[in-house]
Amino acid sequence: MNKHLALWLLALLPAFALAQTPPWYEIKGEFKEALEAKGDPARGKAAFTPCEGCHRADASGRASGAYPRISGQHARVLVKQITDIRGGKRSVSKMEPFIDDHVLTPFNIADIAAYLQTLPVPNTNAKGPGTLVARGKQLYERDCADCHGAKGEGDAASFYPMVAAQHYRYLLREVNFIRDGDRRNSNPDMVKVIKSYSGSDLEAVADYMAQFAPIPK
Amino acid sequence: MRDKVEQLQGAVSHLVSLLLAILLGLVVCSPASAEDPVTIATTVCVACHGPDGNSVIPMFPKIAGLQESYIVKQLRDFQTGRRKSDVMAPVVAALKPEDLAPLARYFNQQKMTPGEEVDKKTTSLGKLVFFDGNEETGVPACVGCHRPMGTGFQIYPRIGGQHSQYVAQQLKNFASGERNNDVSRFMRVVAKRMSEEEIQSVADYLVSLDSK
Description:
heterodimer; A: Cytochrome Bc1 Complex, Chain D, domain 2; 2 domains; 50% helix; B: mainly alpha; Cytochrome Bc1 Complex, Chain D, domain 2
């Protein structure tokens, strides 16, 4: 082999290695603006008004899972989800017109996220059938607890959502979407982890997560 | 027969608005500066909206108790054509900028009369839409913005007790885009997702709400 070519390849090897794992999100643009803004819960409460029609005044969402509970969720997670949805990284077609640029500025998003994080979370989320909790616990402790926490508390710094006190049907739909590539904006490591899950595995892990108690503030 | 009645209604509206425009012109062109809102309200607006803003003609909305900022916005939108109305356009053309806020304050201070009792069978769907929306089609619950009893809040107008014919017409106009002065396209998106049945049913349900 050509000595020069070999040397070039050797020199570029680290670059190839790094290129294997791009970050699963980039903090730039309005995502950055909203994260860096100092969200004000009082302003957020007023800005949240048009969201109440679906998510309810207490942000508890719907037992049917049509709309998630968003009260008590980490503000950083909410900022990521809202900016991902309106940036086209995650599809929630019913919601998109209500969060577009005409409705919310990045500062509104920061305020709303800050407000939602302060809201109380009663133990009223819709639970699953309860029959697969044991299997779900096995799977969760093996595959999910490292990121989402032993009690489903999530990890704000890493943008891993709190999954405790969420409606069963919403959890079930989202883990299905994540496994099948429909959600699109989750950590690729998570997709890898649950790629081999059967439908019943997904039901089990959702059944287990849905019975987590709300995380104390 | 229905067409003829509507044609007649249209012709009457045009005649009324012409007369109102003339009358308003006479009123506001009098020597006094910013016109007394009570004078304008009780000589001009009264013809369609009633003496205290509680219209008794279903196609003309009750404006009693509406939020001040909402009334000002609608009047300005009628003036600029941002909201189209053959009836209102000539009437508001004669209003001066300084007339709008006092008029809005006057009507806001009136009390919207409750509507009549309605048949619970036909409005049960309307009540569902008002409190829950439609999860399948993504219609938000009206209560989210318009509040329990349809009282309204800031830019979201009072709708409890409003004429059902007027509400249904506005929802249809939002759905078609013919009315497009809603902030952030919200009502256009919402109305477009509603079925005809939901529109009529929620309009009927709203009549019964005493929005205080």
